[in-house]
Structures are given as structure tokens and as C-alpha cells.
Amino acid sequence: MSLIGYAPGAYDLFHIGHLNILRHAAENCDRLIAGVVSDEMLLLTKGRAPVIPLAERMEIVRNLRFVDDVHAEVVPDKLDTWRQVGFDVIFKGDDWRGTPKGERLERDFAKVGVEVRYFPYTMHTSSTILRKALAAIDAQEPVGRVARALTS
Q1: Angle at 68 between CA 20 and CA 7, to 5 degrees
Q2: According to the CATH classification, is domain 4-121 in 3.40.50.620?
Q3: Cβ proximity of 58 and 70 under 8 Å
Q4: Three-state SS string across 89-125, please?
Q5: Cα dihedral sign for 118, 18, 81, 25?
Q6: What letter would DSSP give residue 152?
Q7: Strand ranges across the sheet with 31-37
Q8: pTM for the full model?
Q9: pLDDT exceeding 90 applies to what percent of the chain?
Q10: Hey, which residues does 32 pair with through a beta bridge?
Q11: pLDDT < 50 positions in the chain
Q12: Helix 127-140, helix 143-151: angle, nearest 10
């Protein structure tokens, strides 16, 4: 029997932390499905839209050699996603461990026989840090100059 793993995330402003989670996840299952959280769900759960649209984030993740499949996560409840996708283990960053949302995830998935495994969170790089850096640059520069720099 092969072990199916699921690694959900926004994967916005893709960086080394995302790569690390997906690589570690792939090393710990036979088949890896990456769940890319939709723009609408990010707005609902985090209160902000992603910088990179869902289709582009999915294309980036889909092209990683160790990701076997990609699923657009369009519902807020991970158990509903599990019912749609079917997986044996869900992978999260260890910033979830011991938090109310992590404990709820563990409790909910224990009821259906799905294991929650945590991997080290990459502290020095995050989409939040990158977003803040972009906002700081944008605040200092006229919009046109920043837009030209990003597209050239």
C-alpha cells in the first residue's frame, strides 16, 4: 500500500520555505499532492488576497519534480478537502504545532485515521516578510518606477 501525502499551502511568492516543506513531504510519502489554497480561501482565512494568482501558483508547484499532483483548495475545512482528495498524511510547518489550529487539525484528522506530520518552519524567509519588503519598497518609490523594475 502506498502512502499518499498532502501538503497544503498558499505558496504565494514562492520561496525556499515552500520548497523545503514540499521536498520534506515528498521524502515522507510515496505520492505527494500539493494543495494550493485558492485566492478566495486566502482572503477568507488570512484576510488578504495573494500576490500571485491561483493558476500561476499551481503551475509553479506542479512543475516541481517531487510533486505528483496539485489540488486547488477551495473549501475552508481540511476534512472536506480530505474527502475530495483522499490522503493518509497531511504535512504542515511546525509553526502550527501546539497552536489551537494545529491541535484542532490533529484532533479532526485522528478521527479519520490521517496522521499530521510537522516539518521545520523556515524562519528567515516567509511570504509575510517578502510582502512587507515589497510594501516598503513601494512606499519609498513612485509606483511607475517599481512597476518598470519588476517587469524588466
Answers
A1: 45
A2: yes
A3: yes
A4: EEEEECCCCCCHHHHHHHHHHHCCCCEEEEECCCCCC
A5: negative
A6: -
A7: 69-73, 31-37, 4-9, 89-93, 115-119
A8: 0.82
A9: 66
A10: 5
A11: none
A12: 130
Q: What DSSP designation does 35 have? A: E
C-alpha distances (whole Å) from 80 to each of 35, 77, 118, 119 are: 13, 5, 20, 23
Domain boundaries, the chain: 4-121
* Exposed e or buried b per residue across 19-47, where buried means at least 16 C-beta atoms within 10 angstroms of its C-beta: bbbbbbbbebbeebbbbbbbbebbeeeee
Q: Is the separation of the CB atoms in 60 and 14 below 8 Å?
A: yes
Please name the residue that has the C-alpha cell 484542532. 104
- With left for phi above 0 and alpha for psi between -120 and 50, is residue 115 left, alpha or beta? beta
